[in-house]
Automatic annotation (TrEMBL), chain A:
The gene is SEC11C. The lineage of its organism: Eukaryota, Metazoa, Chordata, Craniata, Vertebrata. PROSITE patterns: SPASE_I_1, SPASE_I_3. Component of the signal peptidase complex paralog C (SPC-C) composed of a catalytic subunit SEC11C and three accessory subunits SPCS1, SPCS2 and SPCS3. Within the complex, interacts with SPCS2 and SPCS3. The complex induces a local thinning of the ER membrane which is used to measure the length of the signal peptide (SP) h-region of protein substrates. This ensures the selectivity of the complex towards h-regions shorter than 18-20 amino acids. It is found in: Endoplasmic reticulum membrane. This is Signal peptidase complex catalytic subunit SEC11. InterPro entries: LexA/Signal_pep-like_sf, Pept_S26A_signal_pept_1_CS, Pept_S26A_signal_pept_1_Ser-AS, Peptidase_S24_S26A/B/C, Peptidase_S26, Peptidase_S26B. It is a single-pass type II membrane protein. The chain crosses the membrane at residues 30-48. The keyword Coiled coil does not apply. CDD domains: S26_SPase_I (cd06530). GO terms for cellular component: signal peptidase complex. Keywords: Endoplasmic reticulum, Hydrolase, Membrane, Protease, Signal-anchor, Transmembrane, Transmembrane helix.
TrEMBL record, chain B:
It comes from Cebus imitator. This is Signal peptidase complex subunit 2. The gene is SPCS2. Its main location: endoplasmic reticulum. One of its GO terms (molecular function) is peptidase activity. The keyword Ribosomal protein does not apply.
Length: 192, 226
């Protein structure tokens, strides 16, 4: 592959020219390329925010990270959550909650519930596959969870699909590389 | 994704493409910006990957545009394109508003604003689909011919084309809308793309340009007769 011009800093005009499509574009077409990329990102964002609004949960789709709920859920399963305020929390239900001060949601079963007349509750959770209840996971001095700690309760699940997320979180470089390549493809290729 | 990058490279080819009308000319003056000259490859012969259907269609469309704008000196009208760009920009604006609002006021409080933005976004998507399907159709050029006497409104020429997936028959349709009588006339041709490209994927303007001129003249002469 012959490179055009040896004098000065010529841009490549032969060989692999990934900017080939861009160089033929006028200002409006270049703007449209950027817009196209922005619209793909926006669509994904809007679908996610739409799910948040519909389900009432701040994280409507979560991945099971540990084996503490086997044989019901395994590591890598995808869970769909809803968080409607009217739904009561009863012993035996599977809820996803966040411990105050920690980012990672935990998927366990409710084993004890105390309820006041006005609807306030406090409840205790335990993983099906664990020996002891979750008091060791709660904050220092906290023995019960409240409604505000709940992210949602599981309404449906897809097995194995979440393994992709686990792999991408274990190897962040792979995730960024994949996103960069996909982004470059959308930005540099002209849409028909 | 290496396949995608290689494909992009092949369609870029060894240098060039027809312009879309907006580029700078290949610098003849000594003082022109060197980098911009090297970036733009408007005036070199078009070479693309002949097996890539969308690259073929794009290069044929661009060359047809070039003929109408440079040979007949019509002025391009960006109204249709600007409409599409505006709709897309407004949609992205809703998305950005949703993102920022949700960041400043975490979830439960931001619910009404989020709901509004999400619904507006999908409404704009619907509008965009309707716009591209019914108003824009497959038109890629709207050009005006200014009336030389300056009295009558402009005549409008529209170019639209189609090339089916994995097919080699390219259809180019030229529409003429008279400024004075508001009458619309069309002419089109359907030819195999093999007639216009040589075996290495270079567009042969000598074979393509007469086709465009023939379409144009067939519509222009009718006008003179009337």
């Amino acid at each position: 592959m012959v490179r055009a011009g040896a004098v000065g800093a010529h841009l490549p005009t032969s060989g692999l020219d990934i900017f080939g499509d861009l160089r033929k574009m006028n200002k409006r077409q270049l703007y449209y390329q950027v817009l196209n990329f922005a619209m793909i990102v926006s669509s994904a964002l809007m679908i996610w925010k739409g799910l948040i609004v519909l389900t009432g949960s701040e994280s409507p789709i979560v991945v099971v990270l540990s084996g503490s709920m086997e044989p019901a859920f395994h590591r890598g399963d995808l869970l769909f959550l809803t968080n409607f305020r009217e739904d009561p929390i009863r012993a035996g239900e599977i809820v996803v909650f966040k411990v105050e001060g920690r980012d990672i949601p935990i998927v366990h079963r409710v084993i004890k519930v105390h309820e006041k007349d006005n609807g306030d509750i406090k409840f205790l959770t335990k993983g099906d596959n664990n020996e002891v209840d979750d008091r060791g996971l709660y904050k220092e001095g906290q023995n019960w969870l409240e409604k505000k700690d709940v992210v949602g309760r599981a309404r449906g699940f897809l097995p194995y699909v979440g393994m992709v997320t686990i792999i991408m979180n274990d190897y962040p470089k792979f995730k960024y590389a994949l996103l960069a390549v996909m982004g470059a493809y959308v930005l540099l290729k002209r849409e028909s | 994704m290496a396949a995608a990058a290689a494909q992009g490279g092949r369609s870029g080819g060894s240098g060039g493409s027809s312009g879309a009308g907006g580029g700078s000319s290949c610098g003849t003056g000594v003082g022109r910006s060197g980098l911009l000259d090297k970036w733009k490859i408007d005036d070199k012969p078009v070479k693309i990957d002949k097996w890539d259907g969308s690259a073929v269609k794009n290069s044929l469309d661009d060359s047809a545009k070039k003929v109408l704008l440079e040979k007949y000196k019509y002025v391009e009208n960006f109204g249709l394109i600007d409409g599409r760009l505006t709709i897309c920009t407004i949609s992205c604006f809703f998305a950005i508003v949703a993102l920022i609002w949700d960041y400043m006021h975490p979830f439960p409080e931001s619910k009404p604003v989020l709901a509004l933005c999400v619904i507006s976004y999908f409404v704009m998507m619907g509008i965009l689909t309707i716009y591209t399907s019914y108003k824009e159709k497959s038109i890629f050029l709207v050009a005006h011919r200014k009336d030389p006497t300056g009295m009558d409104p402009d005549d409008i020429w529209q170019l639209s084309s189609s090339l089916k997936r994995f097919d080699d028959k390219y259809t180019l349709k030229l529409t003429f809308i008279s400024g004075r009588t508001k009458q619309q006339r069309e002419a089109e041709f359907t030819k195999s793309i093999a007639k216009f490209f040589d075996h290495s994927g270079t567009l042969v303007m000598d074979a393509y340009e007469p086709e465009i001129s023939r379409l144009h003249d067939s519509l222009a002469t009718e006008r003179k007769i009337k």
